[in-house]
Amino acid sequence: MALALSDAQILASLRDWARNEGIFLSPEGAAATAAYDHLLATGFLKAEDRVVLFNTGAGLKYTDVTAEAMGLQRPYTAT
């Protein structure tokens, strides 16, 4: 099965996992968790199904992309 999810859905999953599980997923890892959530919500997967999700990177590698997508800006300091 292939799914197309919006950036908003992926970012929401990234925030959810960071907030509730303490895991800063990479964007591609958050795409997998967003797809998992979608498949649970639609009934394609059941809560008792065994599923393996891969997070192939670390969110720390993408802090600039994640911050920009979430509308966060670093305060400018003159040097």
In short:
It contains three helices and no strands. By secondary structure, the protein is mainly α. The radius of gyration is 15 Å and the shape is elongated.
Percent of residues in beta strands: under 5%
> Residue-averaged pLDDT, rounded?
85
Give helix and strand order, one letter per element, not per position: HHH
| Overall outline | elongated
- pLDDT below 50 for ≥5 consecutive residues: which ranges? none
Radius of gyration: 15 Å
Give me the secondary-structure category: mainly alpha
**How many helix segments?**
3
Regarding quaternary structure, what we see is single chain
Question: How many beta-strand runs?
Answer: 0
Termini separation: 51 Å
Biggest sheet features: none
The amount of helix comes to 40-55%
